[in-house]
Design a protein that fits this description.
alpha+beta; 5-stranded antiparallel β-sheet; 5-stranded mixed β-sheet; 20 helices; 27 strands; 17% strand; elongated
Length: 806
């Protein structure tokens, strides 16, 4: 054909190739544009990262059941607690997603249908009635908004503009690219505005409803779902009517969508909106402050505290403090020793009290423990084999010693059992045992047991009376060893903290010490067995100058520690452990739940044995032919079947008090070379006890006289001493009208060195030479007068004072 004459061969193939190239270009251009868009998106993503790290969170401390104990606002005063979807009520999630974004789990961050619908609604209304924003876009807006405390100022300039909307959409895509749906939802639950300085649903639930976000009703869930739309307008404490109308609007939508039934909707609408702002919780202010300081990067801090017990114990202390002198404070620590979980931590009497310095945490303050460390002196001495529960100890002056303290009462008890010395908190026996054990060793063992101790200089015997700094928490950790078979442990404030145990004493020593401490509390008949039928092992302490009063008790699974005093360390005359701290400890013990009882089985290393005084040995070991072998018997707790003898009061070490002497045919002391024909055994009392024991038990009366045929025998005692100013069993008459002007002379013959006089075991004075000593005529009654010299020789008499009939 003519039209075909000029056509080159292969033209059809070229046309087909052209069509294929056009098709490829048609496909490549969108892909290239998509690649450019993706590349631009990645560049923008790198240039404008998600602002997630610069939004600080508040801190809330929770009890063991997730009840808030105290909350701390961020540095701008905003309350904002982190929340995940699994930490809020499912009812709230139903209401939020149905009302705000029912396609949340389906769209990629932007819902085009919602945007188109919003555009038509706004055009039809002539104003903005819907933004078409998804929850992801709302999170984007929140993250790009400068934080303010007023929601009306929270919107950035131009937030309604198209540019702002596009920015939010891009941010929404960015969020969906980096985070999961639950993570995005968690950002909303954490940062959504709820009025005033409240952000996040958990802070809103605590503030407006007084409860955790997991415990919401349907009405409350609907209210919190709508509140972020207009936080100031719908504030339930200021505008309850508006809040009710907005809540009902959410409920109606949930009913239309069939998410909740009509009956559920109707019941929810009947629930009134609470027009009240609940204060920030302050149930455990000092414990929470300590936890926040220890875990500064945690916004939710779970604790071992029990909300109800914490509130109860704090109330007990605040009420009790009202009866104390001004400026007095207190602290209480309650620990479950099976896990060492702290269940109540009250660090002061009134956190907001300036007079009592309530901001000072006295659980952690270093103070003198007074006598509170004495149980560990006896427990460690038991382990060392120095004593048993009824060892003969000496509550007598420490003649010739550099450290010679007195007792709280001012007098002395003479020979006492270890259990009595511990229960009555006598000072001299504790010093005697500590002297035998070693103060440096004692200090090191307590430190190894986890105690926080502060000591000036080298540890010495004054530690027995509290000359060392420690704190209530350390004391409770040490007393745990008495309750936990010898294992001391640090109290735990967080469930995640590992149990830190340290060996302090053997299970047998802990068991005996616990039994030595178990007795009725003063002034409370039968209080040793309170509710639950469990005995109470307890000890008090009073520091020098009445600065600190302590009481620590073990009952069942619990250890209760109480401190009373002034935080500034000034004295509180008349305030001491037994009268000040023990009554409060008893109140706390009575309020504890003892359903889970600790086992109290006696270890196999502990046995009971009848022991004899003065030797301290088992009655079965004593030779009945020994003079004075068993003048007193006690049923004692014995550890490891070992019966240690009585401590020698002179050296502080155990030394036999049974002497073997030779006597002649007349029963006088003699050597075999001058007539001695047989040996006899004599059980002696420690010489320091001589002024406090009956005359028939004293050495001068039970040791045989020396034979005249044996000169140069080693003396068994120094020259005797005898009271000559009064005869034994004298009756004195106090004249009518005598106001104490008459004086009784005190005179003794014999003895060596200084003479120490005692009336009814209370020191009267010391003679350093031949000068006379006298005392005022006492009132009517029976009296015991004793004198002792530097070598332990003593004499004693009894006399009676009467008032003649008028």
């Amino acid at each position: 054909m003519p039209g075909m004459a000029g056509q080159r061969p292969g033209g059809k193939r070229q046309a087909k190739c052209g069509k294929r190239k056009g098709t490829v270009l048609f496909l490549l251009v969108p892909l290239l544009l998509l690649g450019v868009a993706l590349g631009a998106g990645l560049v923008l993503d790198g240039m404008f990262p998600l602002p997630l790290s610069d939004r600080p969170l508040s801190t809330v401390v929770l009890d063991r059941n997730n009840i808030p104990l105290r909350a701390f606002a961020d540095h701008r005063g905003v309350w904002r607690f982190p929340a995940r979807p699994d930490e809020v009520s499912p009812l709230y999630l139903d209401a939020l997603i149905a009302y705000e974004d029912q396609w949340f789990y389906s769209h990629p961050g932007i819902n085009p249908f919602a945007l188109v619908r919003a555009a038509f609604q706004n055009l039809g209304a002539g104003r903005v009635v819907s933004g078409g924003s998804t929850l992801t876009m709302q999170v984007a807006r929140i993250l790009d908004t400068m934080p303010k405390t007023d929601d009306r100022k929270a919107k950035p300039a131009g937030s309604g503009s198209l540019a702002r909307k596009i920015r939010q959409m891009l941010r929404a895509l960015q969020l969906e690219y980096h985070l999961t749906k639950d993570e995005i939802l968690g950002l909303y639950l954490t940062h959504a505005p709820f009025g005033a300085n409240i952000e996040g649903v958990r802070a809103a639930a605590y503030t407006w409803l007084g409860k955790d976000a997991m415990e919401l009703t349907r009405a409350e869930a609907a209210l919190l779902a709508v509140l972020p739309q207009a936080p100031s307008r719908f504030r339930p404490d200021r505008h309850p009517e508006r809040a009710t109308a907005a809540r009902d609007k959410v409920l109606d939508r949930l009913g239309r969508f069939g998410i909740w039934t009509g009956e559920q909707i109707a019941r929810a609408k009947e629930e009134p909106v609470i027009a009240f702002r609940f204060p920030s919780p302050m149930t455990a202010p000092l414990a929470s402050r300590r936890l926040r300081s220890g875990y500064p990067h945690d916004s939710i801090i779970s604790s071992t505290l029990d909300y109800e017990l914490q509130a109860h114990v704090a109330s007990l202390l605040n009420t009790y403090a009202a009866s104390l002198p001004p400026k007095q404070s207190g602290a209480i620590l309650v620990v479950d020793h099976t896990s060492m979980a702290v269940q109540a931590y009250v660090g002061s009497a009134g956190f907001n009290s300036r007079a009592r310095q309530g901001h000072v945490d006295m659980v952690w303050a270093l103070r003198s423990p007074g006598s509170a460390l004495k149980p560990f002196i006896y427990g460690l001495a038991l382990d060392q084999g120095l004593i048993h529960s009824h060892s003969l100890l000496l509550d007598v002056p420490r003649f010739g010693k550099t450290y010679d303290p007195g007792n709280f009462t001012g007098g002395f008890e003479g020979p006492v059992t270890a259990v009595r010395a511990l229960q009555e908190s006598l000072n001299l026996p504790a010093v005697q045992v500590l002297d035998a054990y070693g103060p440096v060793r004692f200090h090191d063992r307590l430190r190894h047991g986890g105690a926080r101790l502060r000591f000036s200089g080298r540890p010495n015997l004054a530690m027995a009376l509290g000359a060392v700094g420690t704190d209530l928490e350390s004391l409770v950790g040490l007393y745990a060893a008495i309750a936990r078979n010898g294992l001391a442990a640090r109290p735990r404030l967080r469930p995640s903290e590992p149990l830190s145990e340290r060996f302090l004493m053997s299970p047998g020593a802990a068991y005996i010490t616990r039994n030595m401490l178990s007795r009725p509390l003063p002034g409370r008949e039968g209080v040793a067995r309170l509710s639950g039928g469990l005995a109470v092992a307890w000890k008090t302490g009073t520091s020098y100058g009445f600065r600190d009063a302590w009481a620590l008790g073990i009952k069942g699974d619990f250890i209760v520690g109480v401190w009373i005093g002034r935080p500034d360390g000034s004295p509180s005359p008349g305030q001491y452990g037994a009268v000040t701290a023990v009554p409060l400890m008893a109140q706390v013990l009575e309020g504890l739940d003892y359903r889970d009882r600790a086992t109290d089985d006696m270890p196999s290393s502990v046995t009971r044995e009848t022991i004899c005084w003065p030797s301290g040995l088992a009655a079965s070991q004593m030779d009945r032919r020994t003079t004075g072998a068993c003048v007193r018997r006690h049923h004692a707790w014995i550890l490891d079947h070992q019966v240690p003898p009585t401590l020698n009061g002179e050296s502080g070490l155990a030394a036999p008090l049974v002497r073997t002497v030779w006597v002649n045919r007349d029963g006088r002391r003699a050597t075999p070379g001058c007539g001695g024909i047989r040996k006899i055994k004599i059980s002696l009392w420690p010489w320091q006890a001589e002024p406090f024991i009956p005359a028939g038990w004293r050495r001068v009366n039970i040791m045989p006289k020396d034979s005249d045929n044996c000169p140069g025998l080693s003396p068994v005692a120094a020259p005797g001493i005898r009271i000559v100013s009064l005869a034994d069993n004298t009756i004195l008459s106090r004249q009518p009208g005598d106001t104490g002007g008459a004086a009784l002379p005190l005179k003794a013959l014999g003895g060596q060195g200084r003479r120490h006089w005692f009336l009814n075991r209370v020191p009267l004075g010391t003679l350093h030479g031949p000068e006379p000593l006298s005392m005022p005529m006492p009132g009517p009654g029976i009296y015991h007068l004793a004198v002792s010299d530097e070598s332990g020789n003593a004499d004693q008499i009894s006399f009676r004072v009467i008032s003649p009939a008028p």
